[in-house]
Amino acid sequence: MAAAAPPVNLGHLQWRSPEYLLTTGGSLQTADQALDYFSYSPFFDKRSNNATLRMQMMFANGGMQGVDEEKELRRLTGLEFAISPLSRPQDDLFIVLKRQRTSPDNATVLGAFYILNGNVYQAPSLFEVLNERVLTSIHALSTSFSALAALKPAWTPERGGAWEIKPPPAAAASLADATAGATEAGADAGIDAGAEGAQQQAQGPERDEDTERAALPLSKDASTSAAADAERPPDAFNPLLFRALQAAAAKTAFEEAQGQ
């Protein structure tokens, strides 16, 4: 006897029937349409009471038109599919419950599916959700511990085990920009200093001529002018003001000479 095939995992399957949606205007309008649309998907169980009821109504009354499927399913026991009252047809969302009915008033939910914008999906179980969350958390913790172990500082008798404190990325970028700016400023200062040195070398002969002229004997007027220049601070020199004061002094000296 051949071994039974393992159940197929439909959790990663998406099903859609564009041909059926064209007959309903592109979307599902009612719960009856949603349940009939679901019966064509691979998620539907052909051994369910829904399939049995549809087979009976197909020949008895010409189909499921006008039949309250929820009411008819209450008369049967076994596996069934029903639309959840939490569905929102205005948002094109329908929730299909897979139940095991034992009496007209007692049914146990075995699974859930949902139809969103014409796409049928299998809802994950609580175990699958918790398992995925736990695996994600464990992976994050493992990655964090691996990163910390790679950056663990070496232990020394002098310092012990000290972690290196690194600046945040923004501060590190600002420090790099400041260092680059200081380097460029130093290079510009070096260029300016070189240009100034070359200019001083070019002015060397003129300064030598000025030195030779200063070494020549000065006349009386030149000596007086040189003494006045020595007494006057260099920052206070104003040619126009100096000439005006010199003219006033000459006029005063002339008037005193006339008075004598």
From TrEMBL:
N-terminal signal peptide: none
Superkingdom of origin: Eukaryota
One BP annotation, GO: regulation of transcription by RNA polymerase II
Single GO cellular component term: mediator complex
Tagged with keyword Coiled coil: no
Recorded family membership: Belongs to the Mediator complex subunit 6 family.
Protein name per Swiss-Prot or TrEMBL: Mediator of RNA polymerase II transcription subunit 6
Natural source organism: Rhodotorula diobovata
